[in-house]
Design brief:
The complex is a heterodimer of chains A (444) and B (238). Chain A is mainly alpha-helical and 444 residues long. Chain A contains 18 helices and no strands. In chain A, helix 3 runs antiparallel to helix 5. The chains are: A mainly alpha (444), B alpha+beta (238).
Chain lengths: 444, 238
């Protein structure tokens, strides 16, 4: 097959999901909108009656909203950070997966930070920290780092999109004006290419320290407090590791779904699941090491206030969540990902689902167990906190909105970077074409 | 300028809760109602904790009134993103209600758990709304509140003294809890004035400050006979 035919085949297969929409997708969109509407209704109730209908109390001032905030911002490390590291290390296999990962980052960040809206007692004053920031507050550090990360990841998602936008400008049956505006007059000249590559290179380097800073300051919102088992120096790196860990899991799940829904088997191949699975295995070991170190020092130190929190996790009200977390974040992924035979698409997806659940539980335990056992023993909540319908509804709505944003993205832009695939090694392109040919043969 | 502080003689406290009632009435602290109270939504600027000491049959209960200790190095003030809580030059830990946006970071940071959130809109069942003190603003839903050392009384005493062209006398500024205590267990005054009752009590070998090891520098001193280290910590029951 001639090179131009091959390029054309790649383009066709990646533009198809943008222009064709199956009935299933519409059905899913409808379902997601219903969940979002339910969350919106719950939020409206909370706005009217106040936090009194949420599950929080004294001393559990922070609940599910903060859990989701930390969880989603953790997921956001999937993208940009992984894609930046793979780009910088020139890992060739990254080419088909970077965009899917970068999109996760942007949407997860939007979801994570939106929790502030329903967490605040007075959301109408959300602009006040921007006008009158108190720079000593870790919450302000969060605002700074997360906005920087959001802008950075949008840029980092957009830059490699430009050549693909130009393709859509020329080939899309609809919205050409939209793609023309976004393509910024891309013609694919060598000069433009050189500039683009340079910019992507700069962004890939810049985004890594920003991403690390984001989850570090998110952890410092807890670690800067004197609350038992929050005031820990390990929290910064512990949170960053957990974030990348859950991010890889989210990426693997997204890839498996997109692969089926949008027929991207040629691009998300078993080798990608295998490689990301290995990366996730490494993170599982790192995560366990951090978790062990964190709990071991508290246990040995035996400081009564800290031990109260530790005991609530080991055999108190949080023990079910704690041991499920250990199983989900370490035992299950280790059992699956250690064996090449099990590191298949199905295997890595099972491990990823387990990790996502486990990491959500980790955030839940960190926020709730310390909040429930403050230093003032008379004020212990001791596991009385249970999430209310408002909190559950808003949590479900966030997951739904995340999925919806992803679908909208898939309907506007190719999920795999067309130009980067075309520029890949000969062998990689062959692997893509092989599957595409097989798909075509199966259709005929 | 004064450096306001408090001394509480725990040996004198018999747990009558007069201070709690006085505090609620003076400061318009809204009642939560039985259902909300059962799920931890009570707002109490001042609470009397019961600490059980010893084991049966040698048991005794100690009552410890606990309120905001107006830290020198307040953990709540540094975490607030909008400076809604801050330390005044005369040693008060102040809460600016209109500025509060309800992050509840201060409440989470406070080791004494004495900061309270208005989970819902505060309300008083008739005819209790007629007891609202016009000297103190009624708060609203979505913001934090806590003990102010009855700042309205302090400022009034200062104004009176200024009008008379003199200093505030010791005992002239009294928070509601101190005024209401029948056992006179609560003493309030200027910690920088060595002659004041509160300074003298604070100097006592019986005096220590709660969770002093955290370095928060509380301005409330607890006085108690014998070895009480650890047991006067708000909340601990040994």
């Amino acid at each position: 097959m001639a090179a131009s035919d091959r390029d054309r085949a790649i383009e066709d297969s990646l533009i198809r999901p943008v222009v064709e929409t199956s009935r299933t997708v519409w059905l899913v969109v409808g379902l997601l909108l219903a969940v979002i509407a339910f969350g919106g209704y719950q939020w409206a109730r909370q706005l009217g009656e106040g936090m009194v209908i949420a599950g929080m109390n004294t001393p559990v001032y922070w609940g599910l909203y903060i859990t989701n905030y930390v969880f989603f911002i953790g997921i956001s490390h999937a993208g940009t950070l992984i894609s930046a590291i793979l780009r910088l290390t020139q890992a060739e296999w990254r080419r088909p997966i970077t965009r899917a990962a970068e999109a996760i980052t942007v949407f997860a960040l939007l979801m994570g930070s939106s929790n502030v809206l329903w967490h605040l007692g007075r959301p109408e004053l959300i602009y006040v920290p921007l006008l009158y920031p108190q720079p000593l507050s870790p919450l302000i550090w969060d605002v700074v780092c997360i906005s920087l990360y959001l802008m950075g990841s949008i840029t980092y998602l957009y830059l490699p999109l430009i050549p693909d936008l130009a393709i859509l400008r020329d080939r899309s049956p609809r919205l050409r004006w939209f793609y023309r505006a976004l393509a910024l007059g891309w013609e694919g000249t060598p000069k433009q290419h050189a500039r683009l590559e340079k910019l992507i290179g700069i962004m890939a380097v810049a985004i890594i320290p920003i991403a690390v800073s984001v989850h570090t300051v998110v952890s410092w919102v807890f670690a800067m407090n004197l609350l038992p088992m929050w005031h820990s120096a390990i929290f910064g790196p512990y949170f960053v590791v957990g974030a990348i860990f859950s991010g890889i899991a989210a990426l693997l799940i997204a890839m498996a779904i997109l692969r089926k829904t949008f027929r991207l088997e040629a691009f998300f191949r078993p080798i990608h699941f295998n490689n990301l699975g290995l990366l996730m295995l490494t993170m599982a070991c790192l995560w366990f090491y951090f978790t062990f170190a964190e709990h071991m020092t508290v246990w040995y130190g035996n400081e009564p206030d800290e031990v109260a929190v530790l005991n609530s996790r080991l055999y108190g009200p949080f023990s079910t969540a704690f041991w499920s977390m250990i199983a989900c974040c370490f035992v299950i992924p280790l059992g699956i990902l250690s064996f090449r035979r099990l590191r298949t698409i199905a295997g890595t997806v099972v491990a990823s689902c387990s990790v996502v659940v486990g990491m959500w539980l980790e955030r839940y335990i960190i926020v709730l167990s310390s909040a429930s056992y403050p230093r003032s023993e008379a004020m212990w909540d001791a596991g009385r906190y249970t999430p209310s319908m408002v909190e559950i509804g808003l949590t479900a709505a966030q997951f739904a909105a995340f999925a919806l944003l992803y679908i909208v993205f898939a309907k506007l832009f190719p999920l795999v970077s067309i130009w980067e695939i075309k520029e890949a090694d000969e062998r990689d392109v062959e692997a893509v074409t092989e599957v595409l040919d097989a798909q075509r043969a199966a259709k005929a | 300028m004064a450096n306001w502080g408090m001394a509480i003689d725990v040996d004198r406290c018999d747990g009558c809760n007069a201070c709690v009632v006085a505090c609620r009435t003076e400061n318009n602290v809204p009642p939560a109602g039985p259902e909300q109270a059962a799920i931890g939504r009570t707002i109490e600027w001042l609470r009397v904790e019961r600490h059980v000491e010893g084991e049966f049959p040698n048991v005794r209960v100690r009552f410890v009134p606990v309120m905001c200790v107006h830290c020198d190095e307040a953990p709540c003030a540094s975490v607030c993103p909008v400076s809604a809580t801050y330390e005044t030059p005369d040693g008060l830990n102040a809460q600016i209600h209109p500025r509060c946006i309800g992050t509840r970071a201060c409440a989470q940071a406070c080791p004494y758990t004495v900061r309270h959130f208005n989970w819902g809109e505060p309300s008083w069942e008739a005819p209790l709304e007629q007891t609202i003190n016009p000297d103190v603003a009624v708060r609203w839903k979505g913001i934090m509140e806590k003990c102010t050392f009855c700042v309205q009384r302090i400022r009034r005493a200062e104004d009176t003294a200024r009008g008379d062209e003199r200093e505030v006398q010791d005992g002239e500024a009294q928070p509601a809890c101190a005024q209401a205590c029948p056992a006179q267990a609560i003493v309030f005054g200027d910690l920088d004035d060595p002659e004041s009752a509160v300074s003298q009590q604070a100097e006592s070998p019986r005096a220590e400050r709660p969770m002093e090891e955290l370095g928060t520098g509380p301005r409330v001193f607890y006085l108690k006979e014998g070895d009480w280290r650890g047991s006067v910590r708000p909340g601990s029951s040994d």
